[in-house]
UniProtKB/TrEMBL annotation:
Ranges in a coiled coil: none
PANTHER family the record matches: RNA POLYMERASE ECF-TYPE SIGMA FACTO (PTHR43133), RNA POLYMERASE SIGMA FACTOR RFAY-RELATED (PTHR43133:SF25)
Keywords: Sigma factor, Transcription, Transcription regulation
UniProt name for this protein: RNA polymerase sigma factor
Annotated SUPFAM superfamilies: Sigma2 domain of RNA polymerase sigma factors (SSF88946), Sigma3 and sigma4 domains of RNA polymerase sigma factors (SSF88659)
Taxonomy, superkingdom: Bacteria
Residues annotated as domain RNA polymerase sigma factor 70 region 4 type: 109-159
Membership in a protein family: Belongs to the sigma-70 factor family. ECF subfamily.
UniProt-listed Gene3D superfamilies: 1.10.1740.10, Winged helix-like DNA-binding domain superfamily/Winged helix DNA-binding domain (1.10.10.10)
Residue span(s) of domain RNA polymerase sigma-70 region: 17-73
Signal sequence bounds: none
Amino acid sequence: MTAVEFNYALQNSTKTLKPFAMRLTKDYDDANDLLQDTLVKAFLNKDKYTDGTNLKAWLYTIMKNTFITNYQRMMRKNTFIDTTDNLHYINSSSSMVDNNALSNFAMEDINHAVEKLDESYRNPFLMYFNGFKYHEIAQKLNIPIGTVKNRIHIARKELKDALKIYSFSRGLN
């Protein structure tokens, strides 16, 4: 088979190789890349093709092997092996699993700080926190709306001071 005939046969095989590439990669762009890699490898190794054998089967084999090689390379690249003596990277905080312990401690601190508020500030604050409007709180507690706003403001300020340890990690400035 001449070089021109081989190139023509490669060109005609792309229509049947494309669906196979899509089945392997399940992504349009990756399938195009795989098809291109396959055709480049076939062209570069045309001297290894035996004339008279099934060209499509040869191309399918190249494509399948290219896909497997690329997949294995990607998996190796994403695998991290810690070779330090003290397993520094494995024990670093970047590999920690979040188990909500910090959230639980924070909620305990918040609840404790709210409980420590004077009752005259705690009640309007909790009502506002639970969705009541200022005028509803004023009506239920039988106090002026300005007093409600003032007590909620003071409660927020006291909570902010009591929970300032969380200001850097949570953005409570």
